[in-house]
Amino acid sequence: MRASTSNLLLIGPAALMVLALFLYPLFFSLVSAFTQDDLSFTLAHFVKVFELYSNDIKFTVIIVLSSVVLLAILSIGIAATLTLSPFPKLVAVLALLYRLPLFIPFIVAAQMMRTFLAKNGLMNNTLVAMGVMTPLETVSLLGWSGIIITFVWKQLAFSTLLISGAMAALNRDQIQAAQNLGASRLRILVDVILPQVMPTIGVALVLSTVTIMSVLSVPLMIGTGSPTMITADIAFRVNSYGDYHVANALGMVSYLICAGLAWFYLRQSLKDKGALS
Amino acid sequence: MAHLDIRQLQAGYGDKTILHDINLQVQKGEMIALLGPSGCGKTTLLNAICGFVPTQSGEVHIAGHEITLLPAERRNITMVFQSYALWPHMSVAQNISYGLKVRKIPKAQAHKRVLDLLSIINLEGFENEKVTNLSGGQRQRVALARALAVEPDVLVLDEPLSNLDAKVRLSVRHELKALQKKLGFTSLIVTHDQEEALVMADRVAVLNQGRIEQLGTPEDIYQQPQTPFVADFMGADNCIIYQASTPSVQLNLANAAATQKLALYFRSSAAELRTVSDRTEAGLTISGVIEQSAFLGQQYRHTLRSGDQILQADSRQCWPIASSVSLHVPPHALHVFDLATHETPPSFQSNSRG
Ligand SMILES: Nc1ncnc2c1ncn2[C@@H]1O[C@H](COP(=O)(O)OP(=O)(O)OP(=O)(O)O)[C@@H](O)[C@H]1O
Ligand SMILES: [Mg+2]
Question: Where does the record locate the signal sequence feature (chain A) (predicted)?
Fold first, then answer.
């Protein structure tokens, strides 16, 4: 009895912090999304959200899904190269390079991408100078493709770090055993490594999704205005109209998108566990 | 012609050379044990044969074909790992049949082979078991079956038994040897347990610092070590430096040259303790004082001091501490080396023959 009281006291401060800084605002925004100013229940904010922003919601979902798919392919590719490549020099260079974006904030990354991807940006200028394109043929990659490129570039470091860590933690003998039974590197990746690092890939992608859903600077700086991502809409509702109700309703929608992905991930990993046992 | 032929192999990690000038010829169906202290390069040698460690110079041939530069996946040499290295997400049958799947053997045929192997390793009925549910000994047998499933040209085993407890180790060792006799696979087994090497192998190679110090039958290695290192490593760990002038040490060998400075190695079990007498006898006789005795079950092991040298001798009888005794080693149990050359002087060679 005494022990449990003192345990409560010990976790008290931490629990209070969670309550005050996370649960209270969450609860508050939930209430705000479903009520009028006089606290009476209404769905009007959600009606407004779907009237005004259903295109932006679709846009956000598409951006998130394509970024995550690209992220998965690229980070598995890099992590696999780091784990299986027979060339130690290549591995050393790659291991250094892929980590760089970790240390660059989103807003700086967005600014860099802006100067890189614009119609007369660094990339197009280089292509023109090399004679690959004429100035008339250049297109601006700002817009949806630029947003995806920026998100993937920035999150690649993080998800590769997680995935290659999981691959490095596998016993080296397991890879060698497959190798001397005649398996090629690609087969080893598919048959031996991926099944064992699946849970980590899931975690990396879910965390990346949540990050992408919450970044404001990238859609603002690289997007073309309309359609744009939910974060930009929330900022607009708050800054231009002081309309917290609709902003909170939009927030609920992005919670639901994240929750949907998390549910998909959990169901998948439970299924895998079931298949194994 | 040798089945596996290793010529002047030199290999290591990066710029570091671990193996120097390894020459080893293994006949088809032969089992060779690699024996040596920790860090001497046993695992590195197996890795070089498998293709996991690049060769710096020298050649490796299998059945007349050179494989020095072939990547590991094209060598048809399989390894049994100390850590078993089974894939935890696959069942027993999936583990064993993986090599067959990679080689595109038809499913039915592969399944039959898995069942055959399971009965060979006495694990019938385990095919759908998760490998994580098996005991250490069972896992090692599955790993063995997985390596044998593809009928490798050479099977290499890296301390396959060292993760097992003493009893299981004996039974798996016995099974492994029986299996090797029955199936006749060519194999190299690494161990640092000398008994394991002597019992299992047709020939034993003793490695020291990346070189083969001696290669021979278990009897050869045990009874006629060619270097002080091999003598010491094979249990003749009593070493006494002999000079004709030391009064407490008497060496009576037919062909002793009195001027030489010699290193004499012998096993504690080959030494005999007696009360001091003036009797002269062929062999080595040392007088000393008992310092300590320990009960080993079959006999007592005594620690004896003679001058500044400490020696060990076994005796069925427990000699009292501080008693003066004389220690006698018969000529055939003595391993004699010239201190300058670390070789057995030619005139002594007949003595060390058992
Ligand atoms: N991956 C590696 N990179 C660099 N040096 C290594 C590597 N693996 C082993 N070595 C070095 O090679 C030498 C031989 O190692 P090896 O693993 O072959 O020894 P071993 O005879 O198998 O020893 P043990 O009985 O302890 O397994 C050691 O000095 C070790 O430091
Ligand atoms: Mg080793």
Answer: none
